[in-house]
Specification:
It is found in: Membrane. InterPro entries: MFS_dom (IPR020846), MFS_sugar_transport-like (IPR005828), MFS_Sugar_Transporters (IPR050360), MFS_trans_sf (IPR036259), Sugar/inositol_transpt (IPR003663), Sugar_transporter_CS (IPR005829). One of its GO terms (molecular function) is carbohydrate:proton symporter activity. The structure is a single chain. The chain has a single domain, classed as Up-down Bundle (Growth Hormone, Chain: A). It has 20 helices and no strands. Helix 4 packs antiparallel against helix 5 and helix 17 runs antiparallel to helix 20. The protein starts with 5 loop residues before the first helix and ends in a 51-residue tail after the last helix.
C-alpha cells in the first residue's frame, strides 16, 4: 500500500532547512534597508529628499540585482552538482557557500564588501532553490507529493516571515550596527542547520539507482514508505521497479539523442519551456518586488518605519500560513486548477490594490492606505496558497529522473533572471513613476494565466478527472512522461528488459 512513514516526514522537515535558508536569504534585504544604522555603516543617504538619495537607491537596487545574478549561476551550478555528487552532497555544498556569504554580508564595512556577500549568498540560494524541490519530489510517495514537495514553498515563506520578525526585533537596537548585522548573521544559522542535517537524511533513491546502487535504494525506499500492515514492503519494491524501468528507457534515450536531449527532443524541450515560463510567471505577477521593497512601499503609504516593518513581517507570516494551508490541499485540488485560480486571484487583488495606491498618491487618506494593504494581504494569500506551493512541485515533477536536476536548474534560473530585471528596477521605478510600475505585472499576470490555460497538463490520478480539469497528480514520477508526448512509459508490472522503445510526439 502506498504510504509514508514518520521517517519520511522527518526527512522532509529536516531538509526544509534548505528552503528556509532560501527564503531568509531572499527576504533579509527587506529588514536590512529598514534599519537606519545600515545606511550609516555603508555611508548611504537615508533621506529620500536629499540629493545623495539617488546613489542610495542605486545601491539598494544593486544589492538585489547582484543577489539574483548569483542566484541564476547557483541554479545552473546546483543542477550539475546534484547529478554529479548526489542530491544530498549538492545541498551540503550550498550550505557551506551560504555560510561564507552570510559571514561576509554580516561583517561588511563598506558597500563593495556588502555586495560581494550578496553575490555569494545568492549563489547558495540558487543552489538550494534547485536542490530542495528535486529532493522532496524524489523521496515522496505519489499521492502525498504535493504536500511534501510543497514543503519547499512553505519553508521559503517561513524564511521570509522569520527575516521580517528578526528585523523588527532588531529595529529597537537603533544606536549600533547590531540592528542590521544580527539579522544577516542569522542566515548563517540556517546554513549550519542545513549542513548538519544533511548528514542525517538519506540520498535520493532515484539517484542511487542511476549509480547502480539498487540495494541501497531499496533499503531507503522501505524506510521512507514503510507500512506496518505490509511486512514485505510491496509498495517500495513496486516503486523500485518503476525507477529501474524508467532508467533503462532514459539510458536508451541518452545513447540515441546525446546529452543535450533536454533541448533537442520535442517532448523534453516542451517541458523546459513550460518550466521556464512557469517560474518566470511566478515573478511576473510582482510578488518579489512587493516583498523586497515592502518597507519602502508601506512608507510611501504613510506608515512609519517601525509600522512598515511590522506590516511587512505580518504580510510574510500570513503568506507562510497560506502556503502551508495550500500544501495540504495540493494533491486533492490538482496543480493546474490551483495555479489558474491563483493567477486569477492575484491579478484581481493586485488590480484593486494598485488602484487604491494610485488614489492614495492623490488623496493621502489612511483609509485608502489601510484598504490597499488589506488587498495586498489577499493578493499574497492567492499567491502563497495556490501559486508558490505548486510551481516548485510542478517543475520537479515534469522532468524524468535522468534530466530532473538539469531541467529544474534551467527552470529555476528563470526565477532569478526575471528578478534581476524587476528588482533591480524597482527602487528607481518606485521613486519615479510609483504605482504605475505595478501595471506591468498586472498585464504579465494575464499573459501567464493564458499560457498555463493552454499549455499545462494536470498531474493527478485519472480517477479524479472531470471535464476540462484533466487531473493527473498522484502519478508516480516515472508515469508523468505520458502527459508530454511519450506513448509508452515505465511500468511496475514489467521487467526492465521487457520494455519497448519510447515513442514521442513531434
Amino acid at each position: 500500500m502506498e504510504t509514508y512513514s514518520s521517517y519520511n516526514v522527518s526527512v522532509v522537515l529536516f531538509a526544509t532547512f534548505g528552503s528556509l535558508f532560501t527564503g531568509y536569504s531572499l527576504a533579509i534585504i527587506v529588514a536590512t534597508v529598514g534599519q537606519p544604522t545600515w545606511y550609516e555603516s555603508l555611508h548611504l543617504e537615508p533621506d529620500a529628499t536629499a540629493p545623495g538619495y539617488n546613489h542610495t537607491t542605486t545601491i539598494i537596487g544593486a544589492s538585489n540585482g547582484v543577489f539574483f545574478a548569483g542566484g541564476t549561476l547557483g541554479c545552473l551550478l546546483g543542477g550539475w552538482l546534484a547529478d554529479k555528487l548526489g542530491r544530498v552532497k549538492g545541498f551540503r555544498v550550498a550550505a557551506i557557500v551560504g555560510i561564507i556569504g552570510a559571514a561576509i554580508q554580516t561583517g561588511a564595512v563598506n558597500q563593495a564588501t556588502y555586495l560581494v556577500g550578496r553575490v555569494i549568498t545568492g549563489l547558495a540560494a540558487g543552489q538550494t532553490m534547485v536542490a530542495m524541490p528535486t529532493y522532496f519530489s524524489e523521496v515522496s510517495p505519489p499521492r502525498s507529493r504535493g504536500l511534501m514537495a510543497g514543503a519547499h514553498g512553505s519553508g521559503i515563506n517561513i524564511g521570509y516571515a522569520l527575516a521580517g520578525w528578526v528585523g523588527y526585533g532588531c529595529f529597537f537596537e537603533s544606536k549600533s550596527s547590531f540592528g542590521w548585522r544580527f539579522p544577516n548573521a542569522v542566515l548563517a544559522i540556517w546554513g549550519l542547520c542545513l549542513l548538519g542535517g544533511s548528514f542525517f537524511v538519506p540520498e535520493s533513491p532515484r539517484w542511487l539507482v542511476s549509480r547502480g546502487q539498487d540495494e541501497k535504494a531499496l533499503q531507503i525506499l522501505c524506510k521512507l514508505h514503510h507500512d506496518p500492515t505490509d511486512i514485505e514492503d510491496h509498495f517500495a519494491h513496486q516503486e523500485l521497479r518503476f525507477i529501474k524501468s524508467q532508467l533503462e528507457i532514459d539510458l536508451t534515450l541518452i545513447t540515441e539523442h546525446g546529452q543535450w536531449q533536454l533541448f533537442t527532443m520535442p517532448t523534453y524541450r516542451r517541458r523546459s519551456i513550460l518550466g521556464f515560463f512557469l517560474m518566470m510567471g511566478g515573478q511576473n505577477v510582482g510578488v518579489l518586488v512587493i516583498n523586497n521593497y515592502n518597507t519602502l512601499l508601506y512608507q510611501s503609504l504613510g506608515l512609519s518605519n517601525m509600522e512598515a516593518l511590522v506590516v511587512g513581517a505580518s504580510y510574510n507570516t500570513w503568506a507562510a500560513l497560506a502556503n502551508i494551508g495550500g500544501a495540504t490541499v495540493s494533491d486533492r485540488l490538482g496543480r493546474r486548477r490551483a495555479l489558474l485560480i491563483g493567477y486569477a486571484g492575484c491579478v484581481i487583488m493586485f488590480s484593486i490594490a494598485t488602484g487604491l495606491i494610485a488614489t492614495f498618491s492623490e488623496n493621502a487618506s489612511r483609509t485608502y492606505a489601510g484598504t490597499a494593504v488589506a488587498f495586498l494581504f489577499l493578493y499574497v494569500f492567492f499567491y502563497g496558497s495556490l501559486i508558490d506551493v505548486n510551481q516548485y512541485t510542478v517543475v520537479a515533477e515534469i522532468f524524468p529522473s535522468h534530466i530532473r536536476s538539469q531541467g529544474s536548474s534551467y527552470s529555476f534560473a528563470a526565477l532569478f533572471l526575471t528578478d534581476v530585471l524587476w528588482v533591480d528596477l524597482a527602487a528607481t521605478a518606485q521613486a519615479t513613476i510609483g504605482w504605475r510600475y505595478y501595471l506591468v505585472f498586472l498585464c504579465l499576470g494575464i499573459v501567464h494565466f493564458a499560457h498555463l490555460w493552454f499549455k499545462l497538463p494536470e498531474i493527478r490520478l485519472a480517477n479524479f478527472s472531470h471535464g476540462w480539469w484533466e487531473q493527473t497528480s498522484g502519478l508516480a514520477l516515472e508515469e508523468i512522461d505520458v502527459l508530454f508526448g511519450k506513448e509508452e512509459r515505465a511500468s511496475s508490472n514489467e521487467e526492465p528488459k521487457a520494455m519497448t522503445h519510447v515513442v514521442e510526439e513531434e
